[in-house]
């Protein structure tokens, strides 16, 4: 039995901390799955697979936290020093991995603009109108953020997938079905002057960037919170193990 008031408090806190870590692990699994799902849908809008890499790291972190929290609770409840020491070592290793993953994630945030600009521009010029996935990705983001093209409607000057003498896709219209993409004087990337007030002129990269960055910073905030819990758990483990040893000496 653990001896001393501080070790007993450390045991209780360690169990509570690991329950919290378990909950965070579940949250990270959910976020990672969500990012993976949307990365698949909108992969045509990015030139690289960094988003998939980040989502994989988040899922891996969630799984490891789930396993570690279970191990920590068992070790604390049964007062097993071997399991607690193993948990301590694995948690230190995970902290190093977590720091690396955080650096990769925040590095990607700084590269989102260039990746999306190049990816969306290439998709508009090469695959929009020809591949369903590319068309769906571009149309969806234009409708969702009330934007048109990567930087503006002029990005469609080189688009080969426009149909029926369209200047831009219908998803660029402020109101669905208002016919902004048509006109006697319309050409790819150059809307009819009489229809300019019916088209969204803001580029999608700028309009969606704040949204994407917001979720990455939320994820970063969660990771920092987990980091604080993990460091505190390491301290609690040390205090708890010392209490177990003293309890054995007293017995």
UniProtKB/TrEMBL annotation:
<dbReference type="InterPro" id="IPR018503">
    <property type="entry name" value="Tetraspanin_CS"/>
</dbReference>
<dbReference type="GO" id="GO:0005886">
    <property type="term" value="C:plasma membrane"/>
</dbReference>
<comment type="similarity">
    <text>Belongs to the tetraspanin (TM4SF) family.</text>
</comment>
<feature type="transmembrane region" description="Helical">
    <location>
        <begin position="86"/>
        <end position="109"/>
    </location>
</feature>
<dbReference type="Pfam" id="PF00335">
    <property type="entry name" value="Tetraspanin"/>
</dbReference>
<keyword id="KW-1133">Transmembrane helix</keyword>
<keyword id="KW-0472">Membrane</keyword>
<feature type="transmembrane region" description="Helical">
    <location>
        <begin position="51"/>
        <end position="74"/>
    </location>
</feature>
<protein>
    <recommendedName>
        <fullName>Tetraspanin</fullName>
    </recommendedName>
</protein>
<feature type="transmembrane region" description="Helical">
    <location>
        <begin position="12"/>
        <end position="39"/>
    </location>
</feature>
<dbReference type="InterPro" id="IPR000301">
    <property type="entry name" value="Tetraspanin_animals"/>
</dbReference>
<keyword id="KW-0812">Transmembrane</keyword>
<dbReference type="InterPro" id="IPR018499">
    <property type="entry name" value="Tetraspanin/Peripherin"/>
</dbReference>
<keyword id="KW-1015">Disulfide bond</keyword>
<dbReference type="InterPro" id="IPR008952">
    <property type="entry name" value="Tetraspanin_EC2_sf"/>
</dbReference>
<feature type="disulfide bond">
    <location>
        <begin position="147"/>
        <end position="180"/>
    </location>
</feature>
<feature type="transmembrane region" description="Helical">
    <location>
        <begin position="215"/>
        <end position="241"/>
    </location>
</feature>
């Amino acid at each position: 039995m653990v001896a001393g008031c501080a070790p007993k408090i450390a045991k209780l806190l360690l169990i509570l901390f690991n329950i919290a870590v378990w909950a965070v692990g579940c949250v990270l699994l959910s976020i990672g799955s969500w990012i993976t799902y949307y990365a698949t849908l909108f992969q045509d809008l990015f030139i690289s697979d960094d988003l998939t890499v980040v989502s994989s790291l988040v899922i891996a972190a969630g799984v490891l936290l789930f396993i570690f929290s279970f191990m920590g609770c068992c070790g604390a409840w049964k007062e097993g020093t071997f399991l607690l020491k193993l948990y301590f070592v694995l948690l230190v290793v995970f902290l190093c991995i977590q720091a690396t993953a955080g650096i990769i994630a925040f590095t990607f945030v700084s590269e989102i603009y260039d990746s999306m600009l190049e990816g969306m521009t290439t998709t508009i010029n090469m695959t929009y109108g020809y591949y369903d996935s590319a068309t769906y990705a571009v149309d969806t983001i234009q409708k969702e953020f009330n934007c048109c093209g990567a930087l503006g409607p002029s990005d469609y000057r080189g688009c080969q997938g426009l149909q029926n003498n369209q200047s831009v896709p219908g998803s660029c219209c402020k109101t669905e079905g208002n016919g902004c993409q048509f006109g006697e004087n319309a050409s790819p990337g150059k809307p009819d002057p009489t229809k300019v007030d019916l088209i969204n002129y803001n580029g999608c990269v700028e309009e969606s960037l704040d949204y994407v960055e917001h979720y990455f910073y939320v994820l970063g905030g969660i990771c920092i919170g987990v980091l604080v819990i993990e460091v505190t758990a390491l301290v609690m483990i040390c205090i708890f193990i010392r209490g177990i040893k003293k309890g054995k000496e007293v017995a």
